[in-house]
Design a protein that fits this description.
By secondary structure, the protein is an alpha/beta fold. It has 2 domains: 256 residues, 5'-nuclease (Rossmann fold), CATH 3.40.50; 83 residues, 5' to 3' exonuclease, C-terminal subdomain (DNA polymerase, domain 1, Orthogonal Bundle). It is 51% helix and 8% strand.
C-alpha cells in the first residue's frame, strides 16, 4: 500500500516535470557495491556468494524510486589508483588492500565477511554478474581503463552535464566529492546514512565551505588514500586557524594559506605550531592538491572522448526477459520484486 502511494506521487510529479528537470543519479559503483559485498551474505543456487549483486540491484531500485531520475549512470573503475597520481606519489592508495581497511569499512564486525573481502575471485565474479544484469536495464554503465571513478564522476557532474538544468546526485560516502558541492545543482546521497549532503551541510559540519574543502583536505591529508597531511592538522584545526575557509564566495589557494600562516606567527613569543608546520610544508601541500583536486585535467583527451561516446550513444532500454534470463543463469534466488523493478525503470529512465 505504501509503495503504491509512493508510485502515484511519483507519476504525478512526472506529469508536471520535464525530463530535463528531473535529477540525474550518478553512482560510485565500487563504493556502493563493496558495502553490500561486505555485509550481505546471500548465496545463489550454486552456493556462491551474491550479496553484492543483490544488494546493489536493491539499492538501484531504491534510488530510482526515491529520486525519480531521468538518467542513472553507474561508474566503475578497476579499484586502483591512476598512473598519473601514482607518478606524483608512489605511496598513493598503497594501503587500500590492507586488512585494517577492510575492518574499518565493516566497523569492527568480523566474520566470514573478512574472508570474502580479501577474496578477489569472489569479488570479480559478483561484479561480472552485476554488470551483466545491469546491461538489461536502462542505466548507463561507464568504465574507462586507467581512470579513477572520482575523476569520471567529477567530469560528468561538472562538465559533461553542466548544461543540463537538473540536480546531479552523486551516490557515495566518499568525502572527496564534497569539493563539488559549491555548485548548487550537485548533491551527494550518502548510502550509509541515507541522507543528502549539500554545501550547507559541509559548512555546518566542518566550518569549511565546499569550494575550499579540497584545500582543507590538502592540509589535513587523507588516511584512506595514504596521503599524509601537515603534522597536527585536522579539519577542526584548519577551520579554527583559517576562518576564511568558511567563505562561500572566496576561493583560497595554497599561496594565500602559507602567507597567512607565516604572517600569523610574526612577533609571537610562542609561535602557534600549525602555522609553523604549514609554512614549512609548501611542497607537500602542492603535491596533495594535485592528488586530491577533481577536474577534467586528470583525464586525457582520449579518456574524455570515450566517456562522451558512452554517454552520447547510450539508449535506455528495459529488457525484462534479458534480465530474468541473466538472473536464472547466475542462479540468483533472492527475495526481489523484479516486476516492480522493471516497471519502475521503464517509468522513469527513458
Amino acid at each position: 500500500m505504501v509503495y503504491q502511494l509512493k508510485q502515484v506521487v511519483y507519476l504525478l510529479y512526472m506529469s508536471q516535470a520535464t525530463q530535463q528537470e528531473r535529477p540525474i543519479v550518478i553512482i560510485d559503483a565500487f563504493n556502493n557495491f563493496i558495502r553490500h559485498f561486505l555485509v550481505n551474505q546471500e548465496i545463489n543456487l550454486h552456493s556462491q556468494p551474491v550479496g553484492g549483486v543483490v544488494g546493489f540491484l536493491k539499492s538501484v531500485d531504491y534510488l530510482v524510486g526515491t529520486f525519480c531520475p531521468s538518467r542513472v549512470y553507474v561508474v566503475w573503475e578497476n579499484g586502483g589508483p591512476s598512473q598519473r597520481r601514482k607518478h606524483i606519489s608512489p605511496e598513493y592508495k598503497a594501503n587500500r588492500a590492507k586488512m585494517k581497511e577492510v575492518k574499518k569499512i565493516q566497523q569492527g564486525k568480523e566474520s566470514i565477511r573478512d574472508v570474502l573481502a580479501l577474496d578477489d575471485q569472489t569479488r570479480v565474479q559478483q561484479i561480472t554478474m552485476l554488470t551483466a544484469l545491469l546491461k538489461s536495464t536502462p542505466v548507463c554503465q561507464i568504465y574507462v581503463q586507467d581512470t579513477e571513478c572520482d575523476d569520471i564522476i567529477a567530469y560528468l557532474a561538472q562538465d559533461k552535464l553542466r548544461n543540463v538544468n537538473a540536480k546531479k546526485i552523486i551516490v557515495s560516502n566518499d568525502k572527496d566529492f564534497y569539493q563539488l558541492l559549491h555548485n548548487p545543482l550537485i548533491e551527494i546521497y550518502d548510502p550509509a546514512t541515507r541522507k543528502i549532503v549539500t554545501g550547507n551541510e559541509v559548512i555546518n559540519k566542518f566550518g569549511i565551505s565546499a569550494r575550499n574543502f579540497c584545500l582543507a583536505k590538502t592540509i589535513a591529508g587523507d588516511d584512506s588514500d595514504n596521503v599524509a597531511g601537515v603534522p597536527g592538522a585536522g579539519f577542526k584545526t584548519v577551520a579554527k586557524r583559517f576562518p576564511k575557509m568558511a567563505s562561500t564566495e572566496e576561493d583560497l589557494d595554497i599561496a594565500t594559506i602559507i602567507s597567512e600562516a607565516r604572517a600569523a606567527n610574526i612577533g609571537k613569543k610562542k609561535p602557534i605550531a600549525i602555522y609553523d608546520h604549514i609554512s614549512q610544508c609548501e611542497e607537500l601541500l602542492r603535491r596533495n592538491w594535485e592528488l586530491m583536486y577533481l577536474n577534467s585535467s586528470n583525464l586525457s583527451a582520449s579518456q574524455i572522448n570515450k566517456i562522451n561516446y558512452i554517454v552520447d550513444s547510450h539508449e535506455p532500454k528495459m529488457d525484462k526477459l534479458g534480465l530474468i534470463k541473466t538472473v536464472l543463469e547466475c542462479g540468483i534466488n533472492a527475495t526481489f520484486d523484479y516486476d516492480r523493478f522493471c516497471s519502475q525503470m521503464r517509468n522513469f529512465l527513458r
